Amino acid sequence: MAKKVLVLAESRDGALRNVSFEAIAAAKEISGGGEVFAVLCGDSVQSLAAELIHYGADRVLTAEHEKLANYTPDGYFQTLKQIIDDESPEAIVFGHTSLGKDLSPRLAARLESGLISDVTGLEQAGENTVFTRPVYSGKAFEKKLISDGLVFVTIRPNNIAPLEKDESRSGDVTSVSVDIKDLRTIVKEVVRKASTGVDLAEAKIIVAGGRGVKSEDGFKPLQELADVLGAAVGASRGACDADYCDYSLQIGQTGKVVTPDLYIACGISGAIQHLAGMSNSKVIVAINKDPEASIFSVADYGIVGDLFEVVPLLTEEFKKVLV
Amino acid sequence: MNIYVILKRTFDTEEKISVSNNKISEDSAEFIINPYDEYAIEEAITLKDAHGGTVTVVTVGDEDSEKELRTALAMGADQAVLISNEDLDSQDQFTTSSVLAAYFKDKEYDIILGGNVAIDNGTGQVGPRLAELLDIPHVTTITKIEVNGTTVNIERDVEGDLEKIETSLPLLVTAQQGLNEPRYPSLPGIMKAKKKPLETLELDDLDIDEDDVEAKTKTVEVYLPPKKEAGKILSGETPDQVKELVSLLRNEAKVI
Ligand SMILES: Cc1cc2nc3c(=O)[nH]c(=O)nc-3n(C[C@H](O)[C@H](O)[C@H](O)COP(=O)(O)OP(=O)(O)OC[C@H]3O[C@@H](n4cnc5c(N)ncnc54)[C@H](O)[C@@H]3O)c2cc1C
Ligand SMILES: Cc1cc2nc3c(=O)[nH]c(=O)nc-3n(C[C@H](O)[C@H](O)[C@H](O)COP(=O)(O)OP(=O)(O)OC[C@H]3O[C@@H](n4cnc5c(N)ncnc54)[C@H](O)[C@@H]3O)c2cc1C
């Protein structure tokens, strides 16, 4: 049965986030040949709309309002609720991002609907779409569906492939005027800590350091390796707590959940809370001087040794082969 | 201040996990207070110390959850409520938040604290869902909170960035790691906890009809990931290991 599907697109630093394109691909599959429309909110987002169509959205609704400049649950809730009332979508897809996690449960509560969070895969089973999601810190998986009523899901970044970009695709972009009443939470200030550049959640290669890196300077060889590979640098909680790097680099249950093609863990022991954030990476390399470290239990390739010896050699070797 | 904490008893995911009958096996599993809820309890006690009032811990769970509630009382909460889920055939986040909302309907609350996510099911839905059902604002993943009268200033973690929020009571917040360091229950605390009030409620006591809170989502399968082949631990002189690794990543794994 063909469904009409709403996708909430997200932008950051004036550019759309990849997870929005992935959400469109998921929505296409859920729609079973129905219509996929994207919603884009902000104070000035009109210019981003066309790219959503190039990635497969049939049309785009833009909601521009000064009160949407920063995300607030109330501002976005009121906007989405108005659009949902007008459009009556049968399915909704958000990214499982900070924004998606914050907003989707609140909307689902109002819509009295189920919500399947943090989806990493989907497949059709008769009339239904069945969604896969990791549970128990990534140690197990479950398959879930919503057979009655609105199908509402959030998808984990970097797990569902976006559709091929096609700049010849066209579709309507409509601006909707929204009525936003009082905001009960006000954003006073946003202190940017995450470095601009590669978004960890969307990076294809990550070089991560743990307490074994020993100091802020200890991250330098990791950064050099990352530069050669075009990778992002991440960290364990241990490294953040020790002040070797900023918390914005933290990977794990509390930090970012990442699924790169290649994850290189340097001086990270592999606590379950860290594994919860990276164990689904396609290929994992562990560099640790302790052969018993749990990180080796999830690693595809391991080098037992001193990271300060191994990492610079690795950088040199990659330099040689990547020219 | 009327301070409430919503607490979940969770499976300790540091333990080994096995699946039987399409369910995660609970035999010989260790249960704990969801770690993020410990931050919520600690913050609740800190707020009470600063502003006075009572801290009530509420859970929806089976009778075994009394253990986690007693731990919260031993940390310093004043009273606990166990809403029994034993009459429910199915339970998802819609169910849990609806049951909690029925409990809070006739309560006076200034602030409700919860965890940002449960480490077993891990959706982070229950907090914001409950806030909507109670029609109060919510702020998730908080790392700092200051209450002055009814004005509340909060810092929250947004994918590594820090957002400063101003809002007001009544309010629901969810705790992120970094909010505080939860205390361990002291021995006198544990003794006192045994005598603190712990109320058990059935769904009937809250006028809940099971059918109205039936799960909206259905779990069709629970499984363990295919066992990963043991990784290759390289050997030999370090420079040779490095050369081999680069070649494996290019030619075998084909990720570079
Ligand atoms: C509620 C909760 C949430 C948490 N969330 C997260 C999270 O999101 N992310 C996270 O990472 N952690 C998280 N943690 C913390 C987690 O439990 C661990 O404490 C943390 O991951 C440890 O960091 P580490 O591996 O860097 O440090 P350690 O465990 O100290 O490991 C350091 C490793 O470096 C190795 N080493 C030392 N020197 C060298 C060298 N020269 N060369 C090579 N190897 C070397 C050592 O052998 C050791 O294995 C959380 C904990 C709790 C309770
Ligand atoms: C008999 C039984 C059957 C179940 N069947 C299903 C099922 O079919 N589908 C399914 O998805 N789940 C099922 N569950 C799991 C359960 O419904 C969920 O774990 C629960 O709804 C909480 O959701 P969550 O784990 O995603 O918590 P999150 O939303 O991640 O929790 C966030 C925070 O909300 C609060 N919170 C969460 N749960 C509770 C609670 N129970 N009491 C008080 N506060 C809480 C805590 O502060 C927690 O930190 C079942 C559980 C039981 C006992």
Description:
- The complex is a heterodimer of chains A (323) and B (256).
- Chain A is of the alpha/beta class and 323 residues long.
- Chain A contains 9 helices and 18 strands.
- Chain A has 2 domains: 5-176, 3-Layer(aba) Sandwich (Rossmann fold); 205-322, TPP-binding domain (Rossmann fold, 3-Layer(aba) Sandwich).
- In chain A, strand 17 (283-288), helix 8 and strand 18 form a beta-alpha-beta unit.
- In chain A, helix 3 (73-87) crosses helix 4 (98-110) and helix 5 (220-229) packs parallel to helix 9 (307-321).
- With 256 residues, chain B is α/β, with parallel strands linked by helices.
- Chain B folds into 2 domains: 2-213, HUPs (Rossmann fold), CATH 3.40.50; 227-256, no CATH class.
- Chain B is 27% helix and 30% strand.
- Chain B has 6 helices and 15 strands.
- Chain B starts with a strand and ends with a helix.
- At the A-B interface, helix 4, strand 7, strand 9, strand 10 and strand 13 of A face helix 3, helix 4, strand 9, strand 10 and strand 11 of B.
- The structure holds flavin-adenine dinucleotide (2 copies).
- Indicate the CATH topology of the largest domain in chain B: Rossmann fold
Mean pLDDT of chain B: 96
List low-confidence stretches of chain B. none
**How would you sum up the major sheet of chain A?**
7 strands, parallel
User: How much helix is in the residues of chain B?
Assistant: 25-40%
Largest sheet report of chain B: 9 strands, mixed
Rounded radius of gyration of chain B (Å) = 22 Å
What's the total number of strands of chain A? Answer: 18
Oligomer: heterodimer
- What proportion strand of chain A? 25-35%
